[in-house]
Amino acid sequence: MNKVTISSDRCRGCGLCVDVCPKKILTLDGKKLNSQGYHPASVTDAEKCIACAMCALMCPHVVIRVERDV
Amino acid sequence: MKGNEAIAEAAINAGCLYYFGYPITPQTEISEYMAKRMPKVGGLCLQAESEIAAVNMLLGASASGTRAMTSSSSPGISLKSEGISYLVGSDLPAVVVNVQRGGPGLGGIQPSQADYYQATKAYGHGDMHLIVLAPSTVQEMATLTGEAFDLADIYRTPVIILADGAIGQMMEPVDFSTRKPRELPEKTWATCGHRGARKHNIVNSLLMEPEELERSIRDRFERYRKIEENEVMCEKYMTDDADIVVVAFGIAARIAKTAAQIARSRGVKAGVLRPITLWPFPNKEISALADTAKAFLSVELSMGQMVTDVKLACECRRPVDFFGRTGGVIPAPADVAEKLCAMARELSI
Amino acid sequence: MAVVFERPHALADTLMHYCPGCTHGIVHRLVAEAIDELGVEDKTVGIAPVGCAVFAYNYFNCDMIEAAHGRAPAVATGVKRTHPELVVFTYQGDGDLAAIGTAETVHAATRGENITVVFINNCIYGMTGGQMAPTTLPGQVTATTPYGRTPKIQGNPVRVCEMLSTLDGVAYAARVSVDTPANVRNAKKAILKGFKNQLDCKGFSIIEVLSTCPTNWGLSPKDALSWLRENMIPYYPLGTYKDVDAPKEETK
């Protein structure tokens, strides 16, 4: 299964990854606050991830790491 | 050789192969000389688009661990003051030459010493000092340039050579071999590519944390204290039995020496103390002379700026008077001698 | 598992101070990726500007120098001319490069300094709280153009790539954007080319990157990207304005 790792503590909740994900499987976790006080991005349905890395391309804070199941 | 050219040749001899300049009278010969010589010694003479760009090119060269120099004259030096402050804040060695001309504003192109305050007190914003060397002969233009590069590297600070148009344009014989180079620290801080061998270096003067900025300033002032203790240079001329000691530097010191001779011929025992380092200022030497001399006379090509430092140096234990011409007018030795005799009469020495 | 995307080595593993959604972070990453791909981190020296990217010296793992406002191209010249073997880049904002540093920019370019300039154009002065920049658009409201920029009073925005492309020393001048993944990929190509030109001693390369400033534009990160597309790209068309490699007719 493809894997998206988000260092949620560094995320600034800007939402750019959420908007650009073609599979719409990213969201800003409204229930969680990271140490900076932002709602960090998180993966809702890892199954659907196609490892296109669009999210990581658009992430201004370089908190997303993407791995493809080979 | 001309004073300006002596500076240029001495810089090359000191291993400075990079010069960033901008034309301005009366120091343009430095750039012209560099333009001719540098290609022959595998160096670079680059004329920048402004004095501001030139001093920042110097910053880049120095940051990467290279000896480099820039020069200008009064108005151009004002343009460089931000860059000089950045050099200080980034703890970078550099040599900046100011061949002074009349000011303020566009002023004139005749010699002047009216940048004394600027050089010793106000070359940039923030708590800082600069080593300021004041040559008064073409030979000193050379020796002090070599000295400047060593001092800059040893104390990681910019060094100013404060010359004036007269010495810059004057021709005198020069011997480039006289100066013994000093032992220099290695530049481990330089940003010249970490080659995978060390963490990356950062040359920077921005410190947002007040305590951090204060600590970096205090470290620098610790180095300034050492400079004040070890690097003061001055020349005493007929001061042992002098009743009146003239304090003068650069071109004014040459005039003062002649004036002292004239005054002596008229029964007034005069001598000259010539600061070679304007900062660190020879406070101890002047204070010591205050025990034997009865008065001081500051002779400058300005409206009187060093005079205040002379008063501070002798803690006002002796009267300190001033004689000077400005705007590019050079005082005549006879007039200075006349002033000395008038003082002697007034103070019944 | 094959890694598809991760933080480039040349980008320091530290929290950057940029506001949420500020695309400075993307461009920092692209520069670091270019340095990694060319394997030159150990001989790269970057020059940080004064502006939002003033802390860039903490964000790259190569040697860095902090330049005075607008003077990065001069500092870069000093480094490059004394150490031609080093890879030297400047990272500057629109105020740094096209206002106070215009002379340094134009003359480094016309001298053909063999350096790479990464120029962030976000039409505003970010660090100081949203004042007008030389690239602020007509009608754009900023802290110093509260009634919208009026060219008669505050002058017209500068198109830097077009201006510099007329100079002989310039080997490469391209304007890109980071508002979509596709554009980010293009921006990466342009930045990589800018660095490669330097290795091939082609002369002055500048990559102008249209960038957002959500905080001072008063827009959400997402809306800021749309604002960039609808307002900036029409005034600052993307494309290659000069490329000494390209056959003559291809550039604008």
Give your account of this protein's structure:
The complex is a heterotrimer of chains A (70), B (349) and C (252). Chain A has 70 residues and is of the alpha+beta class. Chain A is 14% helix and 21% strand. Chain A contains two helices and four strands, in the order E-H-E-E-H-E. Chain A has helices at residues 16-20, 54-58; strands at residues 3-6, 26-28, 41-43, 64-68. In chain A, the strands form two sheets. In chain A, strands 1-4 form a two-stranded antiparallel sheet. The longest helix of chain A is centred in the N-terminal third of the chain and has 5 residues, at 16-20. Chain B has 349 residues and is α/β, with parallel strands linked by helices. Chain B is 42% helix and 17% strand. Chain B has twelve helices and 13 strands. A seven-stranded mixed beta sheet of chain B has the order 2-1-3-4-6-5-11, with helices on both faces. Chain B has a five-stranded mixed beta sheet with strand order 8-10-9-12-13, with helices on both faces. The longest helix of chain B is centred in the middle third of the chain and has 21 residues, at 210-230. Chain B starts with a helix and ends with a helix. Chain C is of the alpha/beta class and 252 residues long. Helices cover 35% and strands 18% of the residues of chain C. Chain C has a seven-stranded mixed beta sheet, sandwiched between helices. In chain C, helix 7 links the parallel strand 6 (170-177) and strand 7 (204-210). The interface between B and C is large, with 39 and 36 residues. Strand 4 of chain A pairs antiparallel with strand 1 of chain C, so a sheet runs across the interface.
User: What composes the largest sheet of chain B?
Assistant: 7 strands, mixed
The helix-and-strand class of chain C reads: alpha/beta
CATH class of chain C: Alpha Beta
Q: What's the average pLDDT of chain C?
A: 95
Q: What is the chain-wise order of helices and strands of chain B?
A: HEHEHEHEHEHEHEHEEHEEHEHEH
Q: Kindly report the oligomeric state of this protein.
A: heterotrimer
Count of discrete domains of chain C: 1
> Helical region count of chain B?
12
Which geometry of chain C do the CA atoms define?
A: globular
User: How many β-strands of chain B, per DSSP?
Assistant: 13
The CATH topology of the largest domain in chain B: Rossmann fold
Portion of residues in beta strands of chain C equals: 15-25%
Label the CATH architecture of chain C: 3-Layer(aba) Sandwich
* Strand proportion of chain B: 15-25%
